[in-house]
Write a structure and sequence with these properties.
The complex is a heterodimer. Chain A is of the alpha+beta class. Helices cover 59% and strands 15% of the residues of chain A. Chain B is mainly alpha-helical. The chains are: A alpha+beta, B mainly alpha.
């Protein structure tokens, strides 16, 4: 099976097989090269073309459907190839004949690695490699692209090196060398002749002198200079263009890569995302909108980039504009779905409902209430999102949306209130959701355990359900907040209560609990009072580092912390705690700790 | 000494004379010339004819005009110029002398061999 093409050969319409056309084209090329040195080369070749066309047309008129390889070969045989002409001519000029023979002895054509400017996508490196190794350049393009993506950019580096290292095949001889074709005297002469001809054209408008000059040595010089400047400017433009282009391609590859990675990640975790989706989406409408929104919004850019890169890699230039239209249309549909979905979900958060319950609290015997986090009932290796803020099990979703508020009690007893709140599309829905919240406090004498999160049924929806625990502390009584609890829950601070700031500050240095005392004015931090007293004693307010060190030790006085004062533990703290001085060490008064703090001090100095 | 070389040299020497004589008989276009040469069993590579014609034309021995053709584009019909005519006559004289000389010599050779 062969393709037949129609060509216009010397103003005659010829149907010719694709392969035959290729042979004919090469033959005519070789003739052009051969006759290039002769005066009236164009005329000779066009005469020959006319003759060939005539013979072909005769053939077609006699009933042949098309011109085949054999027909072209027959023509070549009767017309003669440049080599045959050379033999005939060689007889007449023995010198050139000998040169010809020498040429033939030189034998095997030399093959060199060039960049091929005729088939290039970027710099022609791949097409050059393809020509050198007789392999389709697409193979190299794919290899380089894979190396660029998978080999941490090594493909790009190698490509650049090759680009810089290999010359571009500009002249006919270089192109012949690139393909490993024989570079014989004909071809080189033809190349030179071509250049002379084109140069003659360029100088035609310049005066006679100039033309005379151009035919001498000056031609070569002028040619070189002009070529240099033209090459320089176009080279500069090319470099700029390439840098921009290269950057864009690189960006495209990176974006594609990250999109693919994101896609794989989403696909891999889709099992995990399903519960999240069902938690957030309520109505069938929202569920229907979800997939088109996600697939179109993320998938279309991936498809577009893949198409773009493949096109660039294969060097396919023509584009089907309908592809672009279709893709953008689908993407816009995805966008509309996404906006619709988001607005629909947002409506579900319109109304809110709060339900307040009192927790019956047994008054702690020591006059101090300790707030602690209850042990997790749910294993953490269950599916969890947002760093454990949302966990989903078979029948329950656990949401970490708990606030703690510490207030002054109006009576002389501790009180705890639990406020469940939720949002919803309607008040009834919000109320239902709020009532569904499961939240169980647990008291053991002075210890009040808070669960890690609030639970809602798995088939319910997340509509910003929240639990606020209001702890009312009577004046003169203390409350202790476990640091774990402090980190876990969101503490609502009164606007006057600036002790929280201090707490944040110490937070970097300590991990012990904080004890607070309720005064008439509001909460006060017992630790702070002590710190202040100490700093006043030492008249050294400007050294916050000292405060923190003292705090450090102060916490170690507490029963729990004392046990953990192993040297290793100390060392860790030492990296953050700062200078030491006589007052601080005197207060501690333990030889072990003293020596430890000396070590700490030296460690600190080293770090500093 | 290469036999092919010698043969092609001999052919080449008379080629221009043959072409000129074909054209002298009447206007001719390249395909006609080739046909006539083939009829006369003077086989040449067609490709060598065209450069030869161009060379003769450039030497102002030949001239051509475009003639409309029923099948396809116009054709080049060659005729001899006055200069070409003189040139041809000189070649003709030379050829006749040469042919005679060659004939005479080869005949003599043959007779010597025959004897």
């Amino acid at each position: 099976m062969k393709k037949i093409i129609n060509i216009n050969l010397a103003s005659r319409l010829i149907s010719i097989e694709d392969s035959a056309y290729e042979i004919l084209r090469q033959y005519l090329e070789s003739l052009k090269r051969y006759f290039a040195r002769e005066a009236g080369a164009d005329e000779i070749v066009s005469d020959i073309e006319a003759r060939i066309a005539e013979l072909f047309q005769d053939k077609l008129k006699k009933g042949a459907h098309c011109i085949t390889d054999e027909d072209v070969e027959a023509i070549k045989a009767s017309m003669g190839t440049p080599e045959q002409f050379e033999e005939t001519a060689g007889a007449e000029n023995t010198q050139s004949g000998q040169a010809q023979q020498q040429e033939a002895v030189t034998g095997r054509p030399r093959k060199r690695l060039y960049r091929d400017p005729d088939n290039k996508v970027l710099g022609g490196v791949c097409s050059g490699l393809g020509a050198y190794l007789n392999v389709d350049p697409v193979v190299f393009r794919i290899i380089f692209a894979l190396l660029a993506i998978g080999g941490f950019g090594s493909g790009i580096l190698v490509y650049f090196i090759l680009w810089i290292a290999t010359p571009e095949a500009n002249t006919a001889a270089e192109k012949l060398e690139m393909r490993g074709e024989r570079v014989d005297l004909n071809n080189i002469r033809a190349t030179v002749q071509d250049e002379i001809n084109s140069l003659k054209g360029q100088f035609r408008n310049v005066g006679e002198d100039m033309r005379n000059f151009s035919q001498g040595r000056g031609r070569q010089v002028g040619n070189d200079i002009e070529r240099f400047f033209r090459g320089f400017i176009t080279g500069l433009g090319k470099v700029l263009l390439f840098v921009t282009k290269g950057f864009l391609y690189f960006l495209a590859v990176v974006i594609l890569f990250s999109l693919i990675v994101a896609g794989i990640a989403i696909a891999a975790s889709s099992a995990a995302l399903f519960p999240l989706k069902s938690l957030l989406l309520a109505s069938p409408l929202q569920n229907t909108l979800f997939w088109p929104a996600v697939i179109l919004l993320l998938g279309i850019p991936v498809v577009a980039l893949v198409v773009f890169l493949i096109r660039k890699l294969t060097g396919v230039k023509q584009t089907n504009r309908y592809v672009g239209y279709t893709l953008s249309f689908l993407w816009v549909i995805g966008l509309i779905c996404a906006i619709w979905l988001i607005s629909s979900v947002a409506k579900d958060f319109r109304t809110s409902y709060r339900q307040k319950d009192n927790f019956t609290l047994l008054q702690p015997t020591k006059g101090k209430l300790i707030i602690k986090k209850a042990e997790d009932q749910v294993e953490m290796d269950d599916v969890d999102f947002f760093e454990g803020n949302l966990r989903v099990t078979d029948d329950t979703a656990i949401i970490d949306n708990i606030r703690v508020k510490i207030e002054k009690s109006t009576s002389d007893s501790f009180q705890v209130e639990v406020i469940r709140s939720s949002r919803g599309r309607t008040i009834a829905q919000a109320k239902k959701l709020a009532n569904e919240i499961q939240f169980q406090l647990n008291q053991q004498d002075s210890l009040l355990y808070l669960p890690a999160g609030l639970s809602i049924p798995r088939n319910s929806n997340f509509r910003e359900q929240r639990v606020t625990i209001v702890v009312k502390v009577p004046v003169g009584k203390n409350i202790e907040v476990d640091r774990d609890a402090y980190h876990r829950y969101h503490f609502v601070r009164g606007w006057k209560e600036d002790w929280w700031d201090d707490w944040d500050e110490w937070d970097r240095d300590h991990d012990g609990p904080v004890e607070l005392k309720m005064t008439i004015d509001g909460l006060d931090n017992i630790n702070i009072e002590k710190v202040h007293k100490d700093t006043n004693d030492s008249h050294d307010r400007n050294r916050p580092s000292k405060d923190s060190l003292q705090d450090n030790y102060r916490y170690h006085h507490e029963d729990k912390e004392e046990n953990s004062d192993t040297p290793s533990n100390k060392k860790e703290k030492g990296t953050v705690s700062v200078s030491t001085d006589a007052t601080a060490t005197a207060q501690v008064n333990t030889p072990a700790i003293e020596s430890a703090s000396m070590i700490l001090y030296s460690v600190y100095n080293m770090l500093k | 000494m290469n036999i092919d070389n010698t043969q092609s040299q001999m052919r080449k020497g008379v080629l221009e004379f043959c072409i000129l004589s074909i054209i002298k008989q009447g206007e001719a276009y390249p395909s006609d010339i080739i046909e006539k040469m083939k009829e006369a069993k003077l086989d040449i590579l067609e490709g060598t004819l065209y450069p030869l014609l161009t060379r003769l034309k450039n030497a102002e021995l030949l001239t051509y005009r475009w003639v409309e053709s029923s099948s396809g584009p116009p054709r080049k019909y060659f005729t001899l110029t006055d200069k070409g005519d003189t040139f041809y006559k000189e070649l003709e004289t030379t050829w006749n002398e040469l042919a005679n000389a060659v004939h005479q010599l080869t005949q003599t050779n043959n007779t010597i061999q025959d004897l």
